[in-house]
Amino acid sequence: MTVESAQTDSFVRDRLPPKAQWPQFRYDLPEQRIPDQANLVSTLFGDAIAKGWSDRPMLRSPGQTLSYRQAEAEVNRICGVLLNERQLVPGNRVLLRGGNSIEMALAWLAVVKAGLIAVATMPLLRAKELDQIADKGEPALALCEAHLLSEMELVAQVKSGRLPVLVFGDARRADGLEVLSARQGAVYAGCPTAADDVALLAFTSGTTGVPKACVTTHREVLAACNAWPRHVLKANENDVVTGSPPLAFTFGLGGLLVFPMWAGASIYYPDGRYSPESMVRQMREHDVTICYTAPTFYRQMAPFMQSIGVPSLRISVSAGEALPDATRQLWKRATGLEMLDGIGGTEVFHIYISSAGADVRPGAIGKVVPGYIAKVVDDDDNELPRGTVGRLAMIGPTGCRYMHDERQTRYVTNGWNHPGDSFVQDEDGYFFYQARNDDMIVTAGYNVGGPEVEDCLLAHPAVAECGVVGKPDEARGTIIKAFVVLKPGHKGDEAMVKALQEHVKNSIAPYKYPREIEFLSALPRTETGKVQRFKLRQSA
Questions:
Q1: Helix (H) or strand (E) run with residue 416 in it
Q2: Among candidates 34, 45, 17, 39, which has minimal Cα distance to 264?
């Protein structure tokens, strides 16, 4: 049965790529076959009630705890503000600007439950970047956390009056979301969205410069809940989840809101900015069992995990960028835990290759997650023999659809999603990450993956972090250049250059050593923690 869209504003639907450019969508597992009428948030709360989780804690912060029942009531009240007071209609976009907080989580859930489209933005974005997102998404309203309001007020559409702003996170404001929502009813069934109605526009984090708007439906998120969380993560209602990825990033949205709700777990949001040490202390204090963050932050947390400890921690999830084996081993020595690695992407919502526990194989990200299929292909999409480096291609219940962007034809070919990564698959089905396709360095005829050289450099006791790129060279075509951040007490001089070069030569094939090393105080990163290698390449 075909269910008509409930989203009367067809702005996003009208800007989808032609169907010939869509990826294939597969629903091979029974649990990933979602009814044709489904609202993501109504389903998550409905399942929580049906499973007896109503009075279990859902959202936590240092000063507040909300049960599933209380959180749903707050979400329903915010829906009342959006639909009744602001008179938004399903399909309108709502720009959300906030950090990881209970208030931000409630606002996001309300937008989606009301049949609106969530356009969450990173807290550190400036007015120029917010302008780009507002120009592309044309939101009808912005919900902005009080302490982030100053930059929002500089956005052109806000200044011109075309984009009204409603502030949350300040209960004292007479015109704020909290005061307005308190006047609304606590009961609302949710917009009867079609499963294929759009739930969110997720903007890529910009490692390549210009962000893209990725369209994700209610069906895709619900199907994703029944893929990696069910078959690999295996969280449960007794888990307490925390981490650092922003809710505006799909890694954070899944790990720190949607997936815990699906499992009946509770989510702890630390207040404000935190350091590696304070994160470890809060994890210990609140009996955190699952942590999500990027490899760089795990490296920084490791010494505090060793000295302070978090006995309750049972799962550490790493994603967002390549996990160096040196970081995996450092974390394992500090905690006794095997890191749960994974590769996913904003375009396909979340993780589709991963392994946990006894299934972890050294150096591998893992196997394809049940419900997905993946292969390593050549430039013509022909599958390559096992053990051969090629491009990763995947299909599953989620897939890439950029909104009004010619780059769709580069990400999807022949129905397959191409995340832009080079991999090797072994005979047992394990996938070994080599590099981003544009990070594969060809030097004097040899193929060298930048992450392999980075992993080697990170094993040196003087190196805190590093990024490796190719630099054009007249004699060799390209040479390997490393940008290195040293640990305190080490000097970036010629002697250190020599020491690091010899370390690489003695650890991996000598042709892979960096012929140039430049020392930096910090690497350029996105807000999600990814190294912006395009900036390093520009610098090189």
A1: strand 416-417
A2: 45
Radius of gyration for the chain, computed over Cα atoms and rounded to the nearest angstrom: 23
Tallying the residues shown for the chain, one arrives at 540
- Mean pLDDT for the stretch of residues 399-407: 94
Fold of the domain built from segment(s) 217-437: Rossmann fold (3.40.50)
Domain covering 444-539 in this structure, CATH number? 3.30.300.30
Q: Report yes or no: 460 and 517 within 8 Å, Cβ to Cβ.
A: no
DSSP per-residue codes, 448-490 = EEHHHHHHHHHTSTTEEEEEEEEEEETTTEEEEEEEEEEPTT-
Q: What is the average pLDDT across 511-535?
A: 86
Write down the domain spans for the chain: 39-192, 217-437, 444-539
Q: Is the pLDDT of residue 281 over 70?
A: yes
Look at residue 29 and tell me whether its pLDDT is greater than 60: yes
Tell me: pLDDT of 208 over 70. Answer: no
Cut 0.70: pTM above it:
yes
Fold identical between 39-192 and 217-437?
A: yes
For the cut 60, the answer to whether the pLDDT of residue 239 exceeds it is yes
* Residues 245, 303, 292: CA angle, nearest 5 degrees: 20
The DSSP code sequence of 364-403 is --BEEPTT-EEEEE-TTSPBPPTT--EEEEEEBS----BS
Residue range 39-192 in CATH 3.30.420.40: no
